[in-house]
Design a protein that fits this description.
Elements (H helix, E strand, L loop, with lengths): L1 H36 L2 E8 L6 H20 L7 E8 L4 H14 L3 E4 L2 H14 L3 E3 L15 E3 L2 H15 L6 E7 L2 H4 L2 H9 L5 E8 L6 H9 L4 E5 L2 H13 L14 E4 L6 H7 L7 E4 L9 H12 L4 H4 L2 H22 L6 H9 L24 E3 L2 E7 L2 E9 L3 H4 L2
Parallel strand pairs: 1-2, 1-3, 3-4, 5-11, 6-7, 6-8, 8-9, 9-10
Antiparallel strand pairs: 10-12, 12-13
Helix pairs in contact: 2-13, 3-4, 5-7, 9-10, 13-14
């Protein structure tokens, strides 16, 4: 009887071992099968890693690269992979066009672009190829006669109007006199007409002059001229370097307002690419009290966004300057949106095609809005609204760091001038 018990036990143990080994072998076979069936989704990104505006393009390229690496390393798409070919166009549209054609030959399903000029130049091709595209240019004109271009955040026009509204609401003593200081390109000129439309629609502000800056490194004459004309505020739509130079010149001349709207002084404000931690590094103490608007959270304020961004930067060996740049945030966010639509299409059992991703972008609204941790509001798109994050946050430099001013908001006049 005892021998019979041991025999039964031995058979049970042997059977369990065989079944267990069989299950493990089946799991291994399934893993190999999944790996064999894994898909690689190709994307393309072209931006100014070197050349003019590389102070924005370089950290942006690193943000996108790191997030795509993170997606693959963490297997957010399961066994599937994202492969994004990131290229430097040196801020030259002819280079962008060549790279775009190469990307199409590779069979990309999503495209990430950079400059205003190149986005405008590629618009016809983007529409003919029906490829969903997010540019780092937030020019409202990118959306005119375009179905496949989606802005990541609120346009430059919305940002400049948001600054103008804040000026009007917080100015004392009559109608504020404002100058606009813009880059001498389509990127710089983009919001000027829309701010003028807002004024015509009832925004109580006088635009005294619009200055298109060149490569002149001395703004002394210009600043003195604006001061004589009674200009109390300047709205900047350019990049950080020329703004930093202007702020240093204004500080040397004693023209920088120490409080918002200080009489006899100038309060400086700017849109997305004019500010951030990089501006403070460039302008030093002269950046104090610079007012800036964007749709991004920033790392000079504590929050889950700062923790998440710095963690990704550390994981992939980025230095502190890059890690804390809002342009690094911009690259992460562009990669997030592209990844999200692929995830959503996969969840619906769709084959990953350009048209499938385009449909997912159009459905990204209401309960299906997307919440990237690096932005102050959700990304929403529809057939009639292709500007992603409508919400803005105003920041100001206080004691050498950008800090929030008030709560996130949506400019009122952007709706009034449509």
């Amino acid at each position: 009887m005892k021998n019979m018990k041991w025999l039964v036990l031995s058979v049970f143990v042997a059977t369990f071992f065989i079944v267990s080994c069989g299950q493990k072998e089946e799991a291994k076979v399934e893993e190999k099968k999944e790996a064999a069936e894994a898909m690689v989704y190709k994307l393309g990104m072209c931006l100014a890693i070197t050349g003019p505006t590389s102070d924005a393009g370089d950290p942006m390229s690193k943000g996108a690269k790191d997030y795509f690496r993170y997606v693959n390393d963490m297997k957010l798409l399961g066994e599937d992979k994202l492969e994004c070919d990131i290229r430097d166009d040196q801020y030259k549209t002819e280079n962008t066009k060549r790279n775009f054609e190469d990307f199409l030959d590779q069979g990309i399903v999503f495209y990430l672009n950079y400059s205003t000029d190149s986005t405008q130049s590629l618009k016809k091709d983007i529409e003919e190829e029906k490829i969903p595209t997010t540019p780092a240019s937030y020019h409202a004109g990118n959306l005119v006669d375009a179905d496949y271009i989606f802005l990541p955040i609120a346009s430059y026009s919305a940002q400049a109007i948001g600054l103008a509204e804040y000026i009007v609401k917080n100015h004392t003593g009559g109608t504020p006199k404002v100058a606009m200081y813009v880059h001498s390109s389509a990127f710089g000129r983009a919001p000027v007409a829309d701010v003028k439309k807002a004024v015509a629609a009832g925004l109580d502000m006088e635009i005294v002059v619009v200055v298109e800056h060149g490569k002149d490194l001395d703004n002394t004459a210009m600043l003195k001229r604006l001061s004589k004309k009674g200009v109390q505020y300047i709205i900047c739509q350019t990049t950080q370097s020329p703004v930093a130079t202007m702020l240093k010149d204004a500080s040397r001349l004693g023209l920088v307002a120490k409080t918002f709207g200080e009489k006899g002084k100038i309060t400086f404000t700017g849109c997305h690419y004019t500010g951030g931690n990089d501006l403070v590094a460039l302008a030093g103490p002269a950046a104090e009290n610079f007012y800036w608007t964007t749709s991004f959270n920033i790392t000079s304020e504590p929050g889950v966004w700062t923790d998440a961004q710095l963690a990704i930067a550390k994981q992939y060996g980025r230095n502190e300057k890059t890690a804390k740049s809002h342009n690094y945030s911009g690259g992460i966010m562009m990669a997030q949106v592209a990844t999200e639509v692929i995830l959503r299409a996969k969840a619906r059992g769709k084959k990953i095609t350009r048209e499938a991703l385009y449909d997912e972008l159009l459905a990204m609204n209401g309960v299906n809005a997307f919440y990237p941790v690096v932005t102050v509001g959700p990304v929403t798109y529809s057939k009639t609204d292709k500007a992603g994050v409508d919400t803005l946050q105003l920041y100001a430099v206080k004691n050498g760091e950008f800090k929030s001013v008030g709560k996130p908001f949506i400019p009122e006049y952007t709706g009034k001038i449509k």
